[in-house]
Design a protein that fits this description.
Helix content is 24%, strand content 25%. The chain is α+β, with helices and mostly antiparallel strands and 708 residues long. It is globular.
Length: 708
């Protein structure tokens, strides 16, 4: 019985239940005994049966999108305090909440569902609750599984749902990116279903199985989350994994896949799980493209070429250290506590100005030793790498660990820059300590996110600069275990080339590494003290890889200059489906390049182009202006090689001769047109569209020879 006082009241009834309406058949991520059921039901039986294969054939166990599961679906908006939803709980929570909030903690719990406008009190309750939840996820789930794997000679890997900032929320994700993967031996992310798309950093993806996709998050933050965790966590050993390519649809082939691989390589990802091979009968509607598709996919052989390329680049950026200029504070605790700015805005500003960085959690700032880090004068050293400044995206309230670090940073002369404004205070501490720490926060500079790169230039020595500026050039500077520098420069602009100078703080003999031909090529450069100026042209969607370890005796494969073009025309074009190959049919004369999809709108497979052409001596190269997708070339019966994306350039000097030459080009299409003809949209979760991608050779074929 309660006598209601005057005024407007809202009454909350809080209760514990196993039937809250979320994933009711799911383990409780906040309880170690519940999480142990997974080990008992899955891990232990595998070990009992296959223990002699552990650590050899069986590399480890993969957690694919584990979640808190207090809500069903993929809304990505399960922020505590902002949504009516059941909240996760366990037997450990009451004591943890009492320690964080005091004996009256139950009276404060309505703040987890409603904004009571109590300022710092609301922030303290929400931050305290989410901190407790994610600490239990870290201990009960992530470390328990990771420690079991380590004790049995295998690795624990995987990823959570990161989409649209969900990695710091409940529901389909785990509340805190870094804590949820703390027990794993690789840092993990995934890219599926059109998350990263060419030129798509400003676009919003159409709604499919979930909320509309946030192009800014996928392009500017996602890859850096994974590589940052690999860089800062000693347990990860520098290993960053991306599950890639899945659910992009049958219209996606190796041409797009190379960009998707380069996108993440240039952000420091050095391990990949290709998604997917399917053992189900063709066509399996689940998350195509399927690389083999029981022999139906013409892209399969070219996919092998792509994997060889990816392996070579991954090898280059493994085993050493990255060289970031700055650190960016992870926004998880700031989001829990109140108004905040996602770090994606900061990530974009830095990437577009070639300022490399690692995203770091407040846990690192509060426990430097655990992350092999220390603060020394004007630098924060993490895993043997100095960062020159800490950037803190706007938040109304900071966690105590971050605020105490900033106080120490000010004493050490290490610069801290806030974006937009200085915080109002600290979320999880007493009034007295909050008042003591505020002056240290107010002593820091605050700048708009759009002016961050300019402001940082006054505090740091830039590692890489471009002339002229090119906002879509993504750079990654790596130093291998032997101390030799490697530079990745990815031009992510789909239409504009970069042609200018790149200045990098590295010395040595630079050379361009061609990861497709596995050879070195010369690069024009000048050394100025501790810096090297490279003169480069990087075409649209191309990645230049520069190594500074070339030796004087290395035979650099020189590009040919001042060559004369000889157009090649008059091809006979035949075709074969993947399972018909190499038995081609329907020969058709084609004088000039044409989209073969206009002639055969429902055909997927291989097009074979054959021609005999009179050539002079001194022939060096063959180029194809454009084609869809992969091109394989033979000259006079000699296989030259495969190209999976522009530029389609082939060195044919060793096979060409003076006189009549036979040229054969085979082009592999995607399965898009065949699947459409079969009534399969190719992207059942997102809807389908009529085929728009061309097929076959669509650009001029040219042979290049030396001037006589």
């Amino acid at each position: 019985y309660w006598t209601v006082p005057d005024g407007y009241w809202k009454v909350y009834a809080l209760y514990l239940t196993h039937d809250g309406g979320g994933r009711e058949d799911y383990i409780n991520m906040l309880d170690d005994a519940s999480c142990a059921l997974q080990i008992e039901a899955v891990y232990e039986p595998h070990y009992a049966r296959y223990k002699e294969l552990f650590g050899t054939v069986i590399a480890g166990f993969f957690s694919d999108e584990p979640c808190i599961g207090n809500a069903v679906g993929y809304d990505f908006d399960e922020r505590v305090g902002h949504k009516d939803m059941p909240l996760p709980w366990s037997r450990y929570m009451p004591e943890m909440m009492r320690e964080r909030l005091g004996d009256n903690w139950k009276d404060l719990l309505p703040v987890l569902w409603a904004d009571l406008d109590h300022g710092r009190t609301d922030a303290k309750v929400r931050e305290g609750y989410m901190d407790s939840v994610t600490r239990l996820v870290e201990k009960c789930f992530s470390y328990q599984l990771g420690d079991w794997c380590a004790a049995h000679g295998v690795q624990y890997i995987g990823h959570i749902v990161e989409d649209n900032g969900a990695h710091a929320r409940l529901g389909s994700s785990m509340g805190h990116y870094f804590r949820s993967l703390a027990g794993q031996h690789m840092a993990g992310i995934d890219n599926i279903g059109g998350q990263v798309v060419i030129g798509g950093g400003d676009s919003v993806r159409p709604k499919g199985f979930s909320k509309p996709g946030d192009g800014e998050f996928y392009h500017y933050e996602l890859g850096k989350l994974g590589s940052s965790h690999a860089h800062i966590d000693p347990r990860k050993g520098g290993r960053a994994l991306c599950e890639n390519f899945g659910a992009y649809g049958w219209n996606t082939g190796v041409r797009t896949m190379q960009y998707l691989a380069d996108h993440f390589l240039a952000r420091g990802i050095n391990h990949f799980t290709p998604h997917a091979f399917s053992p189900k009968a063709f066509p399996d509607p689940d998350c195509p493209p399927h690389f083999y598709a029981h022999g139906e996919n013409p892209q399969y052989r070219a996919f092998g070429t792509l994997v060889e390329y990816m392996n070579r680049v991954c090898h280059l950026i493994s085993g050493g250290i990255s060289l970031p200029d700055a650190a960016v504070l992870y926004h998880g605790e700031s989001e829990w506590a109140g108004d905040y700015q996602q770090e994606k805005v900061v990530c974009r500003e830095l990437l577009e100005h070639q300022i490399d960085f690692d995203i770091v959690p407040a846990d690192l700032l509060g426990n430097l030793e655990a992350f092999d880090a220390y603060l020394e004068e004007n630098a924060l050293w993490i895993g043997g790498r100095p960062v020159q400044a800490l950037v803190v995206p706007y938040s109304r309230y900071l966690p105590l660990t971050a605020a105490r670090f900033i106080e120490k940073a000010e004493e050490a002369g290490f610069p801290v820059i806030f974006t937009e404004a200085v915080p109002d205070g600290v979320s999880d501490t007493s009034e007295a300590e909050n008042a003591r720490l505020i002056p240290a926060l107010q002593a820091c500079e605050a700048v708009p996110a759009g002016k961050l790169a300019e402001a940082l230039s006054g505090f740091i020595t830039r590692d890489i600069t471009l002339s002229p500026a090119h906002r879509r050039m993504t750079v990654y500077h790596y130093r291998d275990e032997e101390g030799e520098d490697i530079l990745l420069l990815l031009n992510e602009d789909p239409g504009e080339a970069f042609d200018g100078e790149v200045t990098v703080r590295a010395t040595g003999r630079p050379a361009l590494y061609d990861a497709k031909d596995n050879c070195l090529r010369p690069v024009e450069s000048e050394v100025h003290g501790e810096e090297t100026v490279l003169k480069l042209r990087v075409g649209p969607l191309e990645m230049a890889i520069v190594t500074f370890s070339a030796e004087e005796g290395d035979a650099l494969k020189a590009p040919y200059r001042d060559l004369l073009p000889i157009p090649v025309e008059g091809f006979t074009v035949s075709r074969a489906e993947a399972k018909e190959y190499p038995h081609f049919r329907d020969p058709l004369p084609v004088e000039s390049p044409i989209n073969m999809g206009r002639i055969y709108p429902d055909f997927s497979g291989y097009y074979r182009y054959e021609v005999s052409v009179e050539l002079p001596e001194g022939v060096k190269e063959l180029t194809i202006g454009d084609c869809y997708e992969a091109a394989e070339v033979w000259v006079n019966g000699v296989r030259i090689g495969t190209r999976i994306a522009p530029p389609y350039r082939f060195d044919i000097a060793s096979a060409a001769k003076e006189g009549v030459n036979t040229i054969v080009i085979e082009v592999a299409t995607t399965l898009e047109r065949k699947m459409r003809a079969m009534g399969d949209s190719g992207r059942p979760s997102l809807g389908g569209n009529p085929p728009v991608s061309p097929t076959g050779i669509t650009g001029e074929v040219t042979v290049w020879c030396e001037q006589c």
